[in-house]
Amino acid sequence: MTKRIGILTSGGDCAGLNAVIRGVVGRAADGLGWEVIGIREGTLGLLSKPPDVVTLDLPMFTGQVMRQGGTILGTTNRGDPFAFPMPDGSEKDRSEEIIAAYRTLGLDALIGIGGDGSMAILRRLATQGDISLVGIPKTIDNDIGSTEFSVGYATAVDVATQALDMLQPTAASHSRVMILEVMGRDAGHIALAAGLAGGADVILIPEISYKIANIAAKIERLKEQGRNFALAIVAEAVKREDGESAWVQLGHGQTRYGGIGAYLAAAITQATKAETRVTVLGHVQRGAPPSAQDRLIAQAFGVAAVELIRAGKFDRMVAWQNRDIVDVPITEAIAHYQAVEPEGVHVRTARWMGVCFGDT
Ligand code: F6P
């Protein structure tokens, strides 16, 4: 039976979103003859009057699109429909407007591609509006529960690894300690994986507390061994030694993590007299072309989400577990925040190779 399904990307963008959309369109429109309606800018597209949507078909994806970072549909990580920021500074519950727009479009189901925050909001909308929802996990932070990988994470790790590859020669040329600050929100997955893959001497993640004295001792040991440089990578949510988070102020009273690299550089210089420099990697971790692994996961998730709709299984999220795709209740995925396991394989491997986490 033919269907008309909606798809939207929500929350911060990342590499691989267009490959997810390609997977959905390939299976639903090309394979099953369904109509696929792309909703622009997440739920904002459903607040537009008329709804801001585009019909998607496979020829749109034959060229560059799958290779591009970002999302052709646009997205937003502001504008929670249950507490929508209004021009006068107040907040308004606009959830019923979104549900009404969904009905107007005559959609049989909705595929929401998002992180844990978006997934929670979409699920609330789905429950309230009786929307048949299927979720696809995406976030460079890789912190969604019940899935080993979220779309975008592999590319972010590749970008951060390449940054360390490029920092090493200049660190060695100038006998410097290079500090790379990476994203990841409250989890240290990117810093840990890229630090290990990129040969960092020091890896600092929010899940393991550190002392500057331990980092300084590691740098001194490297010097004694004849090394003239050191590479450190730090996750943005790592706190200062006094327990305070490093924040940057954005417009409209918003804040985000930022600045821990500069704090560490000053502290390390003071403790070791080493010359330090800081690189804050920022949004290049999200806008890069998707890696092969992200494209594979993305397309597999897209196809599997369509299959869930075909099977009439809703309120579920596709997930990667044990080298395969499974589906789990969305509630289960968002109930468990997936931080780094301090005894996990990457931490153990790094420790065995002498990498300093700052705790000893
Ligand atoms: O959640 C993804 C993420 O890139 C985090 O790693 C980072 O802290 C945040 O989003 C940045 O958000 P924004 O795009 O609003 O600067």
Q: In words, what does this structure look like?
A:
This protein has 360 residues and is α/β, with parallel strands linked by helices. It has two domains: 4-151 and 290-321, Rossmann fold (3-Layer(aba) Sandwich); 155-286 and 341-352, Rossmann fold (3-Layer(aba) Sandwich), CATH 3.40.50. 38% of the residues lie in helices and 19% in strands. It is built from twelve helices and 15 strands. It has helices at residues 17-31, 44-47, 95-104, 116-129, 153-174, 189-197, 212-224, 260-272, 284-287, 292-311, 330-335, 345-352; strands at residues 4-9, 35-39, 53-56, 84-85, 91-92, 109-114, 133-137, 176-182, 202-204, 230-235, 247-249, 255-257, 275-280, 316-321, 324-329. The strands form four sheets. The chain has a seven-stranded mixed sheet, sandwiched between helices. It has a four-stranded parallel sheet with strand order 9-10-8-13, sandwiched between helices. The mean pLDDT is 97. 6-O-phosphono-beta-D-fructofuranose binds at residues 12, 77, 139-141, 183-185, 236, 256-257, 286.
In short:
It is built from 12 helices and 15 strands. It has 360 residues and is of the alpha/beta class.
Radius of gyration: 22 Å
Give the % helix.
25-40%
Side by side, the strands of the main sheet go 3-2-1-6-7-14-15
Distance between the termini: 62 Å
Fold blueprint:
Elements: E1 4-9, H1 17-31, E2 35-39, H2 44-47, E3 53-56, E4 84-85, E5 91-92, H3 95-104, E6 109-114, H4 116-129, E7 133-137, H5 153-174, E8 176-182, H6 189-197, E9 202-204, H7 212-224, E10 230-235, E11 247-249, E12 255-257, H8 260-272, E13 275-280, H9 284-287, H10 292-311, E14 316-321, E15 324-329, H11 330-335, H12 345-352
Parallel strand pairs: 1-2, 1-6, 6-7, 7-14, 8-10, 8-13, 9-10
Antiparallel strand pairs: 2-3, 4-5, 11-12, 14-15
The structure holds 6-O-phosphono-beta-D-fructofuranose.
